[in-house]
Structure formats: C-alpha cells, structure tokens
Design goal:
Layout lengths: L3 H26 L6 H9 L12 H4 L71 E9 L3 E8 L5 E8 L8 H11 L9 E6 L3 E7 L3 E2 H7 L6 H19 L3 E2 L8 E3 L5 E3 L6 E2 L19 H4 L8 H16 L10 H12 L29 H4 L9 H8 L10 H5 L55
Antiparallel strand pairs: 1-2, 2-3, 3-5, 4-5, 6-8, 7-10, 8-9
Helix pairs in contact: 1-2, 6-8, 8-11
Amino acid sequence: MIDSQSAEKISRMKKLRRTLSESFGRIALKKEDSSFDEICVTKMSTRNCQGMDSVIKPLDTIPEDKKVRVQRTQSSFDPFEKPTNQVKRVHSENNACINFKSSSAGKESPKVRRHSSPSSPTSPKFGKADSYEKLEKLGEGSYATVYKGKSKVNGKLVALKVIRLQEEEGTPFTAIREASLLKGLKHANIVLLHDIIHTKETLTLVFEYVHTDLCQYMDKHPGGLHPENVKLFLFQLLRGLSYIHQRYILHRDLKPQNLLISDTGELKLADFGLARAKSVPSHTYSNEVVTLWYRPPDVLLGSTEYSTCLDMWGVGCIFVEMIQGVAAFPGMKDIQDQLERIFLVLGTPNEDTWPGVHSLPHFKPERFTQYSPKNLRQAWNKLSYVNHAEDLASKLLQCFPKNRLSAQAALSHEYFSDLPPRLWELTDMSSIFTVPNVRLQPETGESMRVFGKNNSYGKGVSNSKH
C-alpha cells in the first residue's frame, strides 16, 4: 500500500508536471515571442552555463523511468520510450539509428523573430508550426516522431522532433530536460536547438539537420575507420564533452547513434533526453541510463552515484569501436553477460583493484569467473597499429570509475600530439575544420596501412563523401 508520505510526494510530482507543461503553453500564447530561456529561469530555477553549476532543481527530484534496450542495430529510437516498449531502428540511408538529424546551416538569431509580421501569410516567423515544412519521416517512437524539414523563413534544412502531448500527462520530463539544457549549450560539437514550437497536441523541438551519425558512418565503412578520421572524431567528442562537463552536465547516453556527423566530418553530441544537470553534493540517479554496450561496469553493478566518469567509459568504448571496426563489449544476453565480457579483458575486480566494489548492489564474487587483466591489444589488435592509442584507451576503460581520464585531460593526451596546436585555441562555436589543413581523409580499405604513421594534414587530403 502507498503510505501518506508517498502519496503526498506523487501528488507534488503531478502538480510539478502540470506547472511545467503550462509554462510551455505560455510560449505559444504570447504575441511577442518570449525567450524560452526566461521561461526556464522563472519556472525551472536554472542557473546560467558560464562555467558555474547548472542545476535544474525541480528535475533533480524526478525519478527515472527509462530503461534503454541494448542492441546497437535495434536500440530504442525514442528518447521518451517506456521500459516495456521497444522500437526497432532501421539501418538505411534515410532512416537509421538516429533520433534526430541536423546540419550546421541555419544558425538564426532569435532576434530575427521580431522582424516578421505575424499577420502576413507570406512572412512566416520562428516559433510557429507553419514556419516549417515536413519533408520526410526519419523515425518514430511511442512518444516522438522525427521528420526532416525545411524552414520557410530561410529555406534551411532542419530536423523536427515532434513530441506528442497527453492531456493528463502534460509535457514529458525528458522533453523539458532536453529543451532546457540545449538552450544553454552553444558549442560547435553539440547539436544546435533552433526553435521550440508548442501547441495543445505537440511540442516540437527544431534542430539543425545533420545527414548521418557515427553508427551509420561505421556501418558504411566497416573494418575500422581511417586513423586520422578516428583522431578527429575522438577529438571533437572530447571537446563537446569537456564543454558540458565543465558545466556539470552529464550526457548519460553516449553511443554511436547519438553522435551526428556532418558532410564535412563535424561531430555533434545529440539526444540529450537522458542528460542531467549534476549538482553538488552528488545525487543518486537511475542506473538504467546508458545503452548496454556502452554502459560502465559500476552502473551495471547497480551504482547510482556517479559523475562525469560515466560518460568517459562510453568514450573509451566508442574509441575502440572506431579503430577495431567492432563494438568493444557487445553483450548478447543480459547484464551478467555484459560484465563477463568486460572482466574477460580488464580483469575481475576486487577490493584491491576497485575499492568499494563489494558494496555495490549487484556484485556477487561467486557469480563471476575470476579473470586476470590483459593488455588491450590482446583483445583489439588494431590498437597496436596506432601511436599511443592503447595507452589512451586503457586510461578511459578503467573499471574503477575514479581512475578514468577526464575529457579535459584526454584532450592533452599524447595520442593527439600530432594535431595542429591551433585546435586547442578555438572558441566554443568554432569548428575544428576552420583550422587550415584539418579535414577528413577518404575512407578506403587500405586505411589500416597508415596506422601509426605521422601523416601530414596538408598532403593528399580531401573531404570524405559518405
């Protein structure tokens, strides 16, 4: 039975949902298109993102109810999926392992909205449903549908993430979280949220359109990516993560499907439906967060207290996958199988190698085979072809969370020593491809022959066509 305290808590949560949902409604009702940032500050007590702790206080009390299914080619499409539902993702040119697509074009200033006449049918403005034309459906889940679209204001391609609202439920918390976080994140390696449209039936998030993601890119170029492209992709991933981690935000769902790739090779962190502003002191969060293949062992063992090191395990898995051409730990059965695959390479933990591991809810020593740690090149031989790659991977793939390298520290690793120094001097909104001679290499079946060599970024290079 539900005691009075629990009933009162549930009542408060429902009231909060209604209040937050109503705040979105005011966006559509105002004649002057009010800044969504002001709504967030007023209704959700969000602090600014200038290197300070960006705490969304009401969201910190929200219980997680999402359970992400685990196969890369059948991972849940919908960031608002209920645990009992599975939506298969179809791998194809236009509809494949992607929650929303975006492009670097069309970075309009919100001030433009006030320059259009609301009464003129020939002058559509931002913030209105009829300002965008739907071109094709990219994917669908139980809560949201994503369309490729086109802005009638400037003709640019966009991705329309249409979230269906239920009258009793109001606006899904994950939608509020994603919108509020993304409005404060401005970085070349984070997907750009252009606009928010609210109606009685739907909440639409309008993103820049990017035509593919890292999952599709690797599927199209099997066997491991070109070594220089791996380095550029990883550098951009770490650059984006360092930006959000400095603002105390965890992504919590890093996987190739959530890393968008533009036609010039720009990588963008996407799908912040599970992202969380992390306050100090540490809160406890749901351990059902990261897709199984990219989920760290501490979370698999039931830990709910974690920090930025959660994302760094995913970085290590993605790094190995880009080089080797196969997932680092492709569990096929369940959490037990996933942990066995990790321990087979990194060794079965104990109190000496992982202080506190015996206190984790799901760690039962008798359930696991006792493995000794191996050199990573024994599991993934292509790491040995790349200068300093094995060392970097080993510092990311640490079972003990506190031993994992941070994003900022990883950017200074020797693995990146042959990149142009100017890359570390870029402003947040500057692409790495604004630096002369930095560009993607063509992906070919012979790319592995140049692993470990110091190739000049100014010789024999061209943009990859994928």
